[in-house]
Design brief:
The complex is a heterodimer of chains A (about 280) and B (about 290). Chain A has about 280 residues and is of the alpha/beta class. Chain A is about 40% helix and about 15% strand. Chain B has a single domain, classed as TIM Barrel (Alpha-Beta Barrel), CATH 3.20.20. The chains are: A alpha/beta (about 280), B alpha/beta (about 290).
Amino acid sequence: MITRTLLPADLRCVVTLGIDFDGPSHEVGRGIAPLGIHSCGRYSARCGIPRHLEMLARHGVPCTFFVPGYDARCHPDTVRAIDAAGFEVAAHGYLHEAWELGEEEESQLLRRTDDLLRELLGKPVLGWRSPSGRKTQTTMRVLKSLGYLYDSSDKDYDLPYRLRFGRGADDWMVELPNNTYSLDDFPFYKFSYTPPSEVLAQWQSEFDAIYASDRFFVLAVHPRSGWGSGTPAHTRVLDQFIGYMRSHDGVQFFSSGEFARWCLDHPQHLEEVAIP
Amino acid sequence: MKPYAWPGGARCAVFVSVNFDAEAYDLLSTTESWLFGRFSYGRYGVRAGLPRLTQFLQRRRIRATVFVTASDAERHAQAIRALSAAGHEIAARGSDLKPLPSLGAGEGDALRYARDTLAAIAGSPPAGFRAPGGELSANTLRLLAELGYQYDASFQDADYPYLFAPSDATRLAEVPGMQALDDAPVYSARHTHARLMKIWREEFDALYDAGCLVSLTLHLRGDMGSTRAARIAALDGLFSHIASRPDVCFMTGAELAAHALASGLAPEPDPMALHQETLALTPYRGDLAVKPI
């Protein structure tokens, strides 16, 4: 068994793009009516998603849309349009839960979102990203029982790995770790009010370093207004950044689901980790 | 995405809105007898800021829309009349800055009082409304329509103005804003005006190219507002940049609303309809929001 994930040389650099839908679920889940200053989630379905779909189609790159179940219920046509455009739809909580859940409640919510997305799209859901970065061993167990191939929520590594959650032979899932302090849009637009061009420069420098070392790049953005990337200036940054990555030799874009499949087909390349 | 038809075939429309928020804002944190020292930034906005801003707007030949509470309008009636006389639109912002959802059954009275007070001071009832703190109750849109308001300017959910139908018979235009084009969050975080102007220039360029509404929100205040001399100078640089682009039209909130109401756009469904049931079952967790350190 290898001790460190090593991507083969022919995978010069892997990029997975994720768009976390984060519509009105973000506010409604906190008991806030999505009105006025709390209406940025309404921008996702109306403007942000169509703008992102158009931009991604122009680049011809895959992308995974992580959708809270509640948003799928509110905007089924938008979620169908994402799927019809050939992009992966994965799960992202029900009401964008940003608090700790009891085991029973968590299991119910994971199933509820899975049922909704599965019914809406007529196919299985392959992956999940925690809506606030919270997850437990229970999360993994339930996701695995629902047939999920991967999780993309842990922040503990720069490379994909096999995350073990039990002792059984099959008690593991592909983990595609992300980072919501730098490889995300909201820290810059919500906290530091960074000008869009400087967000682009930040992501470019992240990409340069990763291209030169670990060769695995995971970006997460949001189609909402406010702290998201749905608005014209913020989508432009994303557009320019994708162009920047594409201009590098050997960069391969995968949806998270496709890359999880690659990982499952090449387990010998992936480090296995058991978190006690 | 379908482009919006701006008047006269313009490429994009710029909406300059001003949140007056003088003593009304300081009084959210203190009482009348303490309106000195740290609680006098609101008064700065009226004494020092307003003359500077109005001269700037006059030089640029821009008519702004000024959202003002009834309480501030009563304190500064002369200034409101002068703004109106100079061609700026006077619009409502509640009776004071208490969040509307906290008013309960008194919300209708507050919105009526705001309308009647501005009508008495400015000479005509306000067409527009922007909610204090951007907070609306489930009843606000219906109340606004019943009271004869023509538009709200509190949402942040669209690239263009659109319509609500608070009842079968009424239409209310929405003139949405954008957090990135509001001076207060950035200045509240103590960022420089150079940084804000860099953000706004990049936001404007992209909105212009996409043909969207450029919905600027300025505050008068001396702390998180745009009226200090250096900030007006910075703003002047931005407006020179805007002026260098062809086919930009400047519109007031009332003009944007009238344009949307006359457009034949289909109204949006009630923004609460989908959510009432879930909200009734969901505890308030607004305090979970991660705040900047």
